[in-house]
Specification:
Elements lengths: L6 E5 L3 H12 L5 E5 L3 H9 L5 E3 L2 H5 L4 E4 L3 H11 L8 E4 L5 H8 L6 E7 L20 E6 L5 H13 L3 E4 L2 H32 L3 H4 L2 H7 L6 H9 L2 H23 L3 H18 L2
Parallel strand pairs: 1-2, 1-4, 2-3, 4-5, 5-6, 7-8
Antiparallel strand pairs: 6-7
Helix pairs in contact: 4-5, 7-11
Length: about 290
């Protein structure tokens, strides 16, 4: 099946799901885009903004006859939805997700009935704000979109998912689920915790001298941005990838201890070496 002939249902019309639906519809990429949400107000906004052709609060109704179903809810909700969806999906329906961790989701997908084609997914994009009000059709443009096929995923299902990813402007990248979780712990989940710790440390200072907030400018704003992320979403991410995140926290603690040692020893050469190495890497990644 080609994407242009497919009926796509997006379950969850927040930032990620709403943006995916918007991109598919804006590009006239598929036959139909339907949305499933928890609140009528969300459906109404999705319809008003032209993100979906139709919407419903009823999961069974929303996925009936769909060729592709994309789960765009918090990770633990995705894991809970997967077994419910199995009996509701049409033969050869492609079931995808956009959850930020993959091992737990793929494990749940393994237990789906044989007529379903499961495939994990994670677009490497987003914002620190949530909800359909923040959704936009260009959110995925230029982003890496990881696909984590299962051994049972057919080449045809993977090709359809690949086409969907490219249709929303993203770059597909196929990867094992466990490798994905290890790597995103370093570059996505750890940065959130560092942002959180930064705000907590500043709060401690503010208890002693509230003037600290008058001095907080672009450096603090940029470094603390992720602390404003949706708490439910981030709890799901951390708790479904806790071993990998804990490992990355240990690595960061080692680096922080080394910085503290160099500073205490007034080791200018050592500090410069670490600072310049980090500066080169950062500039090379995001010029």
């Amino acid at each position: 099946m080609r994407l242009k002939d497919a009926r796509v249902t997006v379950v969850g019309l927040g930032l990620m799901g709403g943006s995916l639906a918007a991109a598919l519809r804006a590009g006239d990429a598929c036959r139909e885009v339907r949305g499933v949400a928890r609140r009528l107000e969300t459906i109404a906004e999705a319809l008003a903004r032209g993100f979906v052709d139709g919407g419903t609060l009823d999961l069974a109704e929303g996925v009936r006859g769909a060729d592709v179903v994309v789960l765009a809810t918090p990770v633990r909700t995705i894991v809970e939805l997967i077994p419910r969806l199995g009996p509701l999906l049409s033969p050869d329906c492609l079931l995808m997700d956009v959850g930020s961790t993959k091992a737990a989701i793929v494990a749940a997908m393994e237990r789906l009935p044989g007529h379903v084609q499961p495939l994990g997914g994670h677009p490497m994009c987003g914002k620190e704000v949530s909800g359909i009000g923040a959704a936009e059709a260009d959110l995925y443009r230029g982003a890496t979109f990881v696909l984590t096929p299962l051994p049972r995923t057919s080449p045809e299902a993977l090709a359809l998912a690949w086409e969907l990813v490219e249709a929303v402007g993203a770059r597909p990248l196929v990867m094992d689920a466990h490798r994905h979780d290890r790597l995103v712990a370093a570059v996505s989940h750890l940065p959130y915790l560092l942002s959180l710790a930064l705000v907590a440390a500043a709060e401690d200072v503010a208890e002693e001298d509230g003037m600290v907030w008058d001095l907080a400018a672009s450096g603090f704003r940029d470094a603390s941005r992720l602390a404003a992320s949706d708490v439910t979403m981030m709890l799901d991410i951390l708790l479904t990838n806790r071993e990998e995140v804990a490992g990355m926290l240990a690595r960061f603690r080692e680096a922080l201890d080394e910085l503290a040692r160099l500073l205490e020893a007034e080791d200018e050469r050592g500090l410069r070496r670490m600072m310049e190495a980090a500066r080169r890497r950062r500039k090379g990644l995001f010029q």
